[in-house]
Design brief:
The protein is α/β, with parallel strands linked by helices. It contains 14 helices and 12 strands. The protein has a 6-stranded parallel β-sheet with strand order 2-1-3-4-5-6, with helices on both faces. It is elongated.
């Protein structure tokens, strides 16, 4: 089939990585997949010409509101992949929730990354029961063997020997839901007492206004650095060199950065929110913190306790192998796309 796939394609973001991976799955199954950025379209009317021009037979959208609303009314069968902010943020706004409910009425299927996400969607839109499937993200990592950690640190204005450092890496687009400033003050206090620890925020400038706020805060914060996004293979290499990968988001669907860290055998320190707690079992596959002070306590413990680090990375690696198989994800999407064949419901 010729498939239209709408997703938010900001470079170096989790949604873009997920969209590229799912497109690869669809094309491997023999479909032609036309991937387009949902932000290029304002309304379903804007998508109508594209559907005609590309001779689209079916469609898929990543993010129930941003992508899904654009597929309404075209008489083209479609499926939905929940993103995270659609369930955690947009569903709380009455008008957006109403729009998303209508999208789910038309959709042949919807994919949630976790069982709690599925349950949340079914509570919000009971009529969607029976068409929501759970499929976790499939993970593969490709660290760049030529990546130079010392050079990267110098570019980030960390001018100390790499052998004498403990770098905590926060990978996120600069937007409020990712809350990159949540740990900054507490980390700066820690850096003052131990100059070997650094907090490095890496990611694209998604929200221009908020980005300026982040830059100003980082400039005032000893031990905290901010650097632009990296290509995926270099980001994986950087993560493999750091002390731990951090997630401080207000809400998450399923953080690929956390799962990639586990696959790379890097410890994870994640804020204790439902999306993170669905993947990170505290003290087993990673460490969960509920406030900045607890983060610092756990980070110090991780540095002091090599046995804990070894246990966390071994368990995290095994969790990803068992629960986030790239091949299983490919097979599931191949089967789900079969539900889009034909002009009417089965």
């Amino acid at each position: 089939m010729r498939l239209l796939f709408l997703a938010v394609l900001r470079r170096h973001t989790g949604n873009a990585v997920t969209a590229q991976r799912v497109r690869d799955h669809l094309e491997a199954a023999g479909h032609v997949c036309v991937l387009r950025d949902a932000f290029d379209f304002e309304s379903p009317a804007d998508v109508a010409d594209l559907i005609m021009a590309e001779n689209v037979e079916a469609a898929l959208a990543l993010h129930l509101y941003r992508g899904g609303r654009l597929l309404q009314g075209h008489r083209v069968p479609f499926g939905i992949i929940f993103g995270g902010t659609d369930l955690n943020e947009d569903a709380n706004q009455e008008e957006k929730s109403r729009v998303m409910g209508r999208v789910l009425e038309e959709a042949r299927f919807a994919v949630a990354f976790t069982e709690p996400m599925k349950e949340m969607a079914q509570r919000q839109w009971p009529h969607a029961k029976g068409k929501i499937y759970v499929q976790s993200q499939g993970i593969t990592t490709t660290p760049n063997a030529a990546f130079n950690w010392s050079t990267f640190l110098q570019r980030a204005d960390i001018n100390r020997s790499a052998d004498d450092l403990h770098v905590f890496l926060l990978i996120c687009g600069l937007r409020r839901v990712k809350d990159p400033l949540y740990l900054v003050d507490a980390f700066s206090e820690w850096h003052r007492e131990d100059p070997s620890v650094f907090f490095l925020i890496v990611g694209p400038e998604v929200d221009p206004v908020f980005t300026q706020e982040v830059k100003a805060a980082v400039q005032r914060a000893p031990g905290v650095r901010l650097t632009r996004e990296l290509p995926q293979d270099e980001l994986h290499a950087a993560a493999r060199n750091c002390c731990a990968v951090v997630n401080s988001s207000v809400s998450e669907g399923m953080s690929a950065a956390i799962l990639e860290a586990m696959d790379l055998e890097v410890p994870v320190l994640a804020r204790n929110i439902p999306g993170n707690a669905a993947m990170v079992k505290h003290g087993v596959t990673g460490l969960l913190f509920s406030d900045p002070q607890e983060f610092v306590r756990l980070a110090k413990r991780l540095i002091r306790d090599p046995a804990l680090e070894r246990e966390l990375v071994a368990n995290g690696k095994e969790y990803v192998r068992l629960s986030h198989s790239w091949q299983v994800e490919r097979d599931v999407y191949r089967d789900l796309i079969g539900k889009l064949k034909g002009g009417s419901e089965d």
